[in-house]
Design goal:
Radius of gyration: 13 Å
Structural class: mainly alpha
Largest sheet: 3 strands, antiparallel
């Protein structure tokens, strides 16, 4: 396991990663179609790159399904 801090993606970097516009990122965030961001300030959402990669590999689940999956994984992990 790496001791390096997780990379954080701003809306523009996340849009590039998902190949969508920044407006689509805002819409997806508002409608619960993205994992919850970390806020560095009132209007500074950032997404953990590792979590986004896991979310993509899990099939880009809706927020409620994503939270359920994470809860299940936490219960299984020691």
């Amino acid at each position: 396991m790496s001791n390096e801090p997780a990379a954080l993606l701003d809306p523009e970097a996340l849009a590039q990663r998902l190949k969508v516009s920044k407006a689509t990122i805002k819409r997806m965030k508002r409608t619960g179609k993205l994992p919850r961001p970390i806020y560095l300030g009132p209007r500074m959402p950032r997404w953990n790159e590792g979590e986004i990669n896991h979310w993509i590999n899990s099939g880009c689940l809706s927020l409620d399904k994503w939270v359920t999956l994470l809860d299940m994984e936490r219960k299984v992990s020691p």
